[in-house]
Amino acid sequence: MTFLVVSKPNPFTCGAQQFGIGLCFSITYASILTKTNRIARIFRAGKRTAKRPKFISPRSQLFICGSLVSLQLAIGVVWLMMSPPIAIPFYANRNDHQLICKAARGFSYMIGFSYPILLVNICTIYAILTRKIPEAFNESKYIGFTMYTTFIIWLAFVPIYFTTAHNIKVRMATMCVSISLSATVALLCMFTPKLYIILLHPERNVRQSMMASKMMVPKTNSSTARVDSGTQADGTWLSNYFLVFFYFILEKLK
C-alpha cells in the first residue's frame, strides 16, 4: 500500500488508497483478534468447566474473521460512494502547487483508519489478557510484541496526522512510515521465530518438541488439550508450507 500512497494521484490510485489501506490492516488485525479471542475463551472456560466452548472450530473462526473484515468492506464501499476518489490541485503557498487525492485534504483518511485502530486496541487488550498462556499453545509472547509495538506506532501516528493538515507532504510521509512499520513489525514478530526454527533448528519442528513444551506447563482439562492439538497441527502445516516455499526460492536463485 505504501507504493499506492506515493504514486501519482489519479482516480484509480486514490480509490485504491481509500479502499485498500483500511482493508489491509483490518484483515491483519481481525485475524489476530480472532485467534487471541479463541484462545482466551478456551482457557477461561477451561477454568470453570470441561465443556467445549462454542465457535472455536476452524469454520467458526473463518466466519468470525470474515464478519470483522466485512465491516471494513462496508465502510470502504460507503466512503467511495459518498466521496468519489479524484485528484485535485492543492496550493500550500504561491510557489508550492501539488496534485493530491481529495481524501488527503482534511481528515478523510481517518474514516478508513478508524476501524483498524479499534481492532488494534482490542487486539492489544487480548494480548495482555493472554500473555501468561503457555507459548506452546498460542504464541502469546510474539502476538504481544506485535500488538504492543503496533499500538505505540499508531499512538504516534494519529496526533501527527491531525497536526499536519496544512503540510500534505509530511502527512503522507508519516502515513507511509506508519504503514511500513506496522507491516514490518507484524511480519518480523509473527513469522521470524517460525523461520528461525524451520531453517536453523528443523529438529524442533516436530510434534515431540511441542509435547515436551506441554509437559512443562500445568495440566489442563480436555478442552485445553483439544485446542493444543489443533494449534500444533496448524503450526506444522504452516511450517511445512514455508519450508517448501523457501526451498523453491533457493533453487531459483542458484
UniProtKB/TrEMBL annotation:
UniProt-recorded Gene Ontology molecular function terms: G protein-coupled receptor activity
Cellular component, GO annotation: plasma membrane
PROSITE patterns recorded: G_PROTEIN_RECEP_F3_3 (PS00981), G_PROTEIN_RECEP_F3_4 (PS50259)
Entry keyword annotation includes Glycoprotein: yes
Domain G-protein coupled receptors family 3 profile: 1-214
Residues annotated as transmembrane: 20-40, 61-87, 107-130, 142-162, 168-191
Keywords: Cell membrane, G-protein coupled receptor, Glycoprotein, Membrane, Receptor, Transducer, Transmembrane, Transmembrane helix
Designated name of the protein: G-protein coupled receptors family 3 profile domain-containing protein
Organism: Acanthosepion pharaonis (Pharaoh cuttlefish)
Lineage: Eukaryota, Metazoa, Spiralia, Lophotrochozoa, Mollusca
